Structures are given as structure tokens and as C-alpha cells.
Write a sequence for this structure.
């Protein structure tokens, strides 16, 4: 484990334990199968990054209530709900080294347990007694589902632009981080400019996080990633390294890459995948992707730098840095 | 069209037009495909029963705001969301005479557009500015998804009891009607006993409606139903006529029926299906199902009879009666 990861985990140990307890306590289904399937996705080794940044942002705003840990679970439930539905949409096989839910229990159960988790997130949000928080969650859920449809529609399209890619990951990832950070400020009755600053932190953190996620899908080691690399390519999902490569490659290489993306049943070989990564390295696509992620991480840091120094602020800065350093 | 249906439609013509307009105006997706798929399920000939009873119940409580028609769409969106997901879960082919969405656009799109509609329902609910209404919707969504999982788990199980069946349809249908009627009273600031009375109306109406729905799946004419009869049997879904038959049939018949339910790939013939219905008729299963539905409809009528006479009350009484008379 890197020193930075160790430092973050030491700083938030108590918070993570409380979040973990709340995740179990608030799940509360009537049906055992729902508990089992929800548990499979919820307690399968997630980083708890969304609830954690929400709690830390609340602390930064001097939140003094007792509902922060409870409420933070709404973001993890919502995240888990979208994972259940997205794994089905993406026809994924593995997540964090385990078979995905729809492969174990079937599509139907995955859909319905996702719906249940979405509803739990909403019920917990209603528990804040703040209608504007409900509104933020509702708008978030709308945007996320449309982001996924957008991504689905553009599958296999080698004409996807960087701007369109950024818009897709904004909806599917960054908005959830943004909402988590913004509502923590709303609940703490922080002034508007603090809400905006934390929303900016969340948005930029989410963008950096997803871009690195998409990069790791090419360059991570499989055991650390918990699934085979190349999943995005297999699903015809264009992400930044590939978009940059298509833009910058020589004509012959570009043609070869396009063919690879459009292969029926994604039947590319390990050698072809390695050649693709070599091309990404040579053309500067990997470096470019790292650079874009790092710009977002820097913006995230700048957004919290306006707050006075505190342990919470330091951890939020460390988390922004960690999105770049992580290897899985 | 029956005289009763004509009378109801004449009484609510203006309301239905406004609800229809609001359903279009509030859908509001960014993505054309989302509009198309949501439109397929939303504007495919639904009865608008849920928004309609909500609006009528509000009128009964003297609701004087302007948000009732807008808010009523939340219940239709929520209903449409569950139809999209349930058709997938049930592996259905036709709804109201048209191919279901997941057969046209695939499972992924059906799941994601369902999520979008759920989120729209929530956003419109937040527009009431009443946190208790949000809480009712959240609890409803949780209960509905668990009801569907429950039903799925018991598929093909000939040991399903009448009580368990009633619990399943309570969650999957009656709670939505109940919530629609209750929140109309909450929004009109009606006293607690009126809220309870309307919740009772909605609950009992929903139970009657679903029991008749399940009956029609055996005895309706296919063109009127918009899909083949026998869908529940094909899906291994036990409903009241079959539960009663299994309970009351002679031993040899019971064995034959059990085999029919458990047939691989539901490969029963038209003759076998007709024999099943004959058995249901002879054993009194059809009559019993009608009787149970009618008891719920009577309870629904009793619940609104406490209100002073008005046009809205008369239509709510007519609707309760209509659930029994309808042929599709």
C-alpha cells in the first residue's frame, strides 16, 4: 500500500467504521434475497469514497448534527444501485474479483435489487427533512440514467469526441461526487460560496477519478483491478486514451485501431491488446490522459484550499492526490 | 364501451386531457432515445387510473392549489418505470397489443429508461415541497421492488398461499394506489381521518383492480386484453384463480394442474389451457376470485362514502365499481 493511501486510511479509520455500520444498519430489507444481493454489491470491497468525502466536506463546514454518517449511506446505496444496473447494461462479468450480481442471480434480481437500493437512498434522503436535498438527489438520478443511455448509444462509435466523453463521465460519475459534496454543505447551512466550492471539489474529484479509472482499464495489473483489463474495449466503450490515440495516430494505425474497436464479439488477442497499449504509449495518449486527470485533481484541490487548514481539509487534498496515484 | 365506462370518461374528460398534457410536458429528457422509449410505455394506451384517482381524491378534500395535475404524473411515471422493469423480469412479449420495450430496444435501454422515469417521479414529488410526501413515495418504491422480488422467488411454486398472494399484490399494486390517494389528502391538508379514509380507498381499489387483472389473464378475450391470455401461467406466476383451484380440486385434477404449472418452457396447448379454465369454472375458482375482488371494491366504496356527496365522490364510487365490470 502506498504511503498516501496509508495516511488517508489512518485519518479516516473511525469515519469508515461508522459508515460501514450505517451501511449495514440502514439496508433493512424484508426479503432475505434482497439482503444477500444488496450485500454482494455493497460489501464487496468498495472504497466508500462517496460517503467519505460527504462526511469530510460536512466537517469542513462545521456540520454539528448526527445524521451525516446515516445520510452518507444514500450515496453508497445510489452508487451500488447504478453498479447493479450498469453491470447488466455493460454485460460485465467480474467486479472487484467477484462475479457480478446478474451473473449469479439473473438479470431480474439485479434490476429489482437496484431499484430497492435506489429507493433506500431516497428514503434516507427524505430523513434529512430538507426538500432541496431531495431535489438534488432526484436531478442527479435523472442525469445519471441519461448519461448511461448516452454512453450506450455511442458504443462502438469511433467518432466519439473528447468533449462528448467528458460529458458522459460528468453525468455517470462526477455528478454523484458533486452532489455528495454539495449537500454536505447544504446540511451544514454553509453559505452559498462554500456550497459552490465543495460542489466544485466533488465535480473535479469525480472527473479525475473516472478518467483514471478508464486509464487503469488499459494499464492496471489484472489481480489489483479485480477484473480483466480491456473491459471498455471489449464493450466498445471509447474512453480518453483511445479517443486520443484515434486522434493522434498515423493513418495506418488509426485504421487498425478502428477495426479493433469494431471487431464482432470483441475477439481481440492479448497480443493485439498489448500492441494497442504500446501505440497509446508511443502516441502520448497515456500521458495525455494522465495530464487531463491531473488537471481535474488540481482544480479539486484548489476548490478546498479556500477553506482554513484542518485535518478534514488535508484528507480531502490527499484524496484528490490519491485519485492520480492509485493503481486499482 | 359499457355505460359505466362512458359515464366515468364523460365525468373526467377535462381532467384526463390535463393529465395527458402534463405527462408530455414533464417528461423532459435530454436524450431523444429516452423520450422515445418512455413515450412507448407512457403513451401506449394506459388508463391513467393512478393520476386520475389522485386528482379526484384531492378534489374531495378541497385541494385548491395548482400542482395536482403536475404531481399526479409522478404516479404514472412511477407506474411506467415498474412496467418497464417488470416486463423484463417477466420476460413478457406484448403489452396493450404492442411489443414491450425491452424486445424493441433491448434490456439495457429498458432498465435505464425505467431508472429515468423513477427519477422523474421523484423530482416531481420534490416539487410538492413536502418532505412527508417524499417519504411516502420512497417507502412505496422500496415496498414495490421487494414485492417484485418476492413474486419472482415464488415463481412456479404451487404451494403459494392466498395470504402470500395477497401480500404480493398489496406491494406490487395496491400500495401505489394507496399512496396516490393518501398524498392527495396530505397536499390538501386534510385531517388525519380523511387521509386514512382515502388511503383505504386507494388500497382496496388497488387490490380489487389487481385481482380482476389476474382473473382477466385467464378469461379475457385476447384482442381486448392486448396480449395473449395465460401469461401468468406461462410465467409460473400463481394468482388467485389458480390458488383456489389447487386448493379445491379433486386429487387427480390437482396433480394435473401442478404438472401444467411446472411444465418446462410453459409448453401447454390451447386445449390444456381451456381445460384449466373449465376446471376453474367448475370448482368455483372463478366465482371465488370475483367475490374476493368485489369485497375489496365494496370496502373502497365504503371508505369514500364517509365524504359528503359530490361529483368527485360519485366518480370515485363509479371507478371502484368499474374495476369489477371491466373486460380488459
Amino acid at each position: 500500500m502506498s504511503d498516501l493511501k496509508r495516511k488517508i486510511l489512518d485519518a479516516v479509520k473511525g469515519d469508515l467504521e461508522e459508515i460501514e455500520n450505517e451501511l449495514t444498519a440502514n439496508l433493512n430489507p424484508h426479503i432475505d434475497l434482497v439482503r444477500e444481493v444488496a450485500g454482494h454489491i455493497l460489501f464487496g470491497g468498495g472504497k466508500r469514497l462517496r460517503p467519505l468525502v460527504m462526511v469530510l466536506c460536512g466537517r469542513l463546514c462545521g456540520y454539528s448534527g448526527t445524521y451525516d454518517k446515516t445520510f452518507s449511506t444514500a450515496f453508497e446505496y445510489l452508487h451500488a444501485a447504478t453498479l447493479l444496473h450498469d453491470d447488466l447494461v455493460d454485460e460485465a462479468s467480474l467486479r472487484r474479483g467477484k462475479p457480478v450480481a446478474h451473473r449469479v442471480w439473473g438479470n431480474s434480481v439485479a434490476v429489482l435489487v437496484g431499484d430497492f437500493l435506489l429507493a433506500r437512498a431516497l428514503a434516507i434522503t427524505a430523513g434529512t427533512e430538507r426538500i432541496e436535498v431531495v431535489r438534488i438527489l432526484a436531478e442527479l438520478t435523472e442525469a445519471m440514467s441519461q448519461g448511461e443511455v448516452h454512453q450506450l448509444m455511442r458504443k462502438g462509435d469511433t467518432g466519439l469526441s473528447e468533449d462528448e466523453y467528458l460529458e458522459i463521465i460528468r453525468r455517470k460519475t462526477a455528478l454523484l461526487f458533486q452532489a455528495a459534496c454539495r449537500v454536505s454543505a447544504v446540511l451544514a447551512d454553509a453559505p452559498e460560496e462554500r456550497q459552490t466550492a465543495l460542489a466544485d471539489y466533488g465535480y473535479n474529484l469525480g472527473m479525475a477519478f473516472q478518467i483514471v479509472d478508464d486509464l487503469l482499464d488499459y494499464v492496471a495489473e489484472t489481480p489489483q483491478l479485480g477484473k480483466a483489463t480491456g473491459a471498455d474495449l471489449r464493450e466498445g466503450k471509447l474512453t480518453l486514451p483511445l479517443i486520443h490515440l484515434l486522434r493522434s495516430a498515423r493513418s495506418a494505425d488509426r485504421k487498425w485501431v478502428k477495426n479493433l474497436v469494431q471487431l464482432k464479439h470483441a475477439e481481440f488477442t492479448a497480443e493485439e491488446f498489448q500492441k494497442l497499449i504500446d501505440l497509446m504509449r508511443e502516441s502520448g495518449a497515456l500521458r495525455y490522459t494522465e495530464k487531463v486527470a491531473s488537471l481535474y485533481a488540481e482544480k479539486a484541490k484548489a476548490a478546498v484550499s479556500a477553506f482554513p487548514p484542518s485535518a478534514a481539509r488535508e484528507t480531502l487534498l490527499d484524496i484528490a492526490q490519491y485519485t492520480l496515484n492509485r493503481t486499482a
Q: What stands out?
A: Residues 3-323 of chain A form a domain with the Farnesyl Diphosphate Synthase fold (CATH 1.10.600.10). Strands of chain A lie at 94-95, 98-99. The two ends of chain A are 11 Å apart (CA to CA). Chain A touches chain B at residues 29-31, 33-34, 85, 88-89, 107-109, 111-116, 118-120, 122-123, 125-127, 129-131, 134-135, 137-139, 141-142, 144-146, 148-150, 152-153 (CB under 8 Å).
